[in-house]
Design goal:
The chain is of the alpha/beta class. The chain has helices at about 10-20, 35-45, 65-75, 90-95, 110-120, 150-160, 165-170, 175-190, 195-205; strands at about 5-10, 30-35, 50-55, 80-85, 100-105, 125. The chain contains nine helices and six strands, in the order βαβαβαβαβαβαααα.
Length: about 210
């Protein structure tokens, strides 16, 4: 049975390269592409892929939160992370969000094939070059070192991308007052009270890329 694959990355060249690598594989077919997490959610709903190959750091709506929503709404869909980040922190965050596998972007093409086969079969795949992810938190599912809710993470990402309060409110269809409340709570929870510090934190936890 041919497995349907959705490619999610904000770089068109990366998506094109992945499509070219997957095209010769008899058991897999690329059925769509998306450039950010929000577009990925719509594509998963429309195309119902078996596997999503997902980047983590993308503008607008990051891969970590997209993974969690995909796994919640479409539990039969496996997510394989393909990221430039290789630290244990990023691996742990992705696996806690629900990813079935994790590859770094300089992996060999044959490793991509093995990873696709593993996650499509319901197994977990981690590149041998990756460190072991940190242990999960014992506090009822809270992510260790990350006290923010999914909505707060989304707003933090938009702040780090340079969006104004009004722009964030319009994009998320919430009031300016709600954005301001979330912003204050984010600062209080993180103990960071300036935009530059929030941006550095967003980069550190993988919500945005350093070049964003």
């Amino acid at each position: 049975m041919t497995r349907r694959v959705l490619l999610v990355d904000d770089h068109a060249l990366v998506r094109s390269g992945l499509r070219a690598l997957i095209a010769p594989l008899a058991d897999f077919e690329v059925v769509g592409e998306a450039a950010d997490g929000r577009a990925a959610l719509a594509a998963v709903e429309a195309l119902r892929p078996d596997v999503v190959v997902m980047d983590l750091s993308m503008p607008g709506f990051n891969g970590l939160d997209a993974i969690a929503r995909i796994r919640s709404g479409f539990p039969a869909c496996a997510v394989l992370v393909l990221s430039m980040h290789s630290s244990a922190h990023y691996v742990g965050e992705a696996m806690r969000a629900g990813a079935a596998g994790y590859l770094i972007k300089d992996a060999a093409p044959e490793e991509l094939e093995r990873a696709l086969a593993a996650v499509a079969a319901g197994a977990t795949f981690l590149s041998a070059r990756l460190p072991a992810p940190p242990a999960a938190s014992s506090e009822g599912g809270a992510q260790a070192g990350e006290p923010l809710t999914a909505r707060q993470r989304e707003i933090l990402q938009l702040i780090a991308e340079g969006r104004s309060t009004r722009e964030i409110a319009a994009q998320l269809f919430i009031s300016i007052k709600t954005v301001e409340t979330h912003r204050a709570q984010i600062m209080q929870r993180l103990g960071i009270f300036d935009v530059a510090g929030l941006t550095r934190h967003a980069i550190r936890i993988g919500l945005v890329s350093p070049e964003a």
